[in-house]
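Journal club prep — side note

Before the paper discussion, L.F. wants everyone to see what a predicted structure for a comparable chain looks like in token form. Sequence:
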Amino acid sequence: MTTYRTCDGVRRRDFLKVGVVGSLGLTLPDYLRLTEAAESKRTRRATSAIFIEMAGGPSHLDTFDLKPDAPSEVRGKFRPIKTNAPGVEICEHLPKLAEVADKFCILRGVSHTLAAHQFGREYVVTGNRPLPSLEYPGLGSVLIKERPGPIDMPGFVAVPNTAQRPGFLGVQYAPFSTGATPRANAPFNVRGITLAGGLTVHEVERRKKLRQLLDRAFHGYEDNDQLLEGLDSFSERAHSIITSPKARQAFDVSKESPAFAKRFGTSSFGVSCLLACRLIEAGTRCVTVSSNGWDTHQDNFKKLKENLLPSFDEGLASLLWGLEARGLLESTAVFVTGEFGRTPKINSRSADGGRDHYPRCMFMLLAGGAVRGGQVVGESDEKAAQPLHEGFSPDDVAATFYHNLGIDHTKEYHTETGRPIMIVRNGEVIRQVFA
């Protein structure tokens, strides 16, 4: 519709809206409330996040970036299948994810140069290339600093652990690691959450009062000590959590309805995804879930087909389904990644073949919030050896992740010495993800 202004300054489109408002019998305040609500919906960002860490570095060629026309020593044994998103194909051993492909965006041609597990992992979980002189905070630590959650729930939970650390932000922004994975249909006893050994809430309250007396006695020694500040913060939070029925209920996956829990299966990864969904629903701001075993130097295809892909497929597909079913997908940013991809050329270390570390080309998945699912953004070359065009860096993906949460990735923090540090130094938001 052509838009132009009338002589009194009202645009023709606005004039027509006023006419419609009058015909519907809406007052001006009604109209303003409706338009404000519509604008809010268009600009809504996620407020929580789930980070799936595929530890070891999954093969992009055998999962989300297959090359069926490449030579046999590159394309491997798996074939692509169609998904419910037009034109999007993924591995045949990911049939459940193929059914929910409209809920996630595949990034192809993500690239960096750090082929060691530790450095590659630090890069992707912070969005900053590692430096020996500085430890950058993980994505979850930044999130809970910018978006603190309810005091009776842990803000950042790792199931069972995570590569993310608080870095220069300090220990008060560290993740709470469960140290174990939950089992299907069984109570999940989490150290620091479950009252074990006959300990009662009354006893916890009594110990808290004793600690407060000691704190007053030694007041003054902890000034300017970031570690003690963080520990004190943890003590207060721990008390709120351990006395909170909501927290204990959220961690206990056996409380979940059987019909909902059944879709997640019985694998440790699947039940961990169920726990992540419950924690987000209860108010936790960030949950990381570890999926291990992706370092497939040997028996790549056997390990993927028989173990890694089925549990990953079931767990992640159920997570996306579950978040949407409970009205949480729009408010939860989901980020799935390993530390790098695997070599295009299959090695001969085993009869089944393997793939080695390869950071020059990899995939990542984004979902939730303002992410437009059902699309592929970016492209690799004919052998998935490098981005076909410019490609994306982990910095770019981190900036995009933060943008989805309404966090300005160019914001500066300061270290204890006053050094200004940008959340993400070199990244640019990948706008196509939201298009």
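L.F.'s comment for the group: Residues 1-24, 35-42, 195-202 have pLDDT under 50 and may be disordered. Keep this in mind when we get to the figures.
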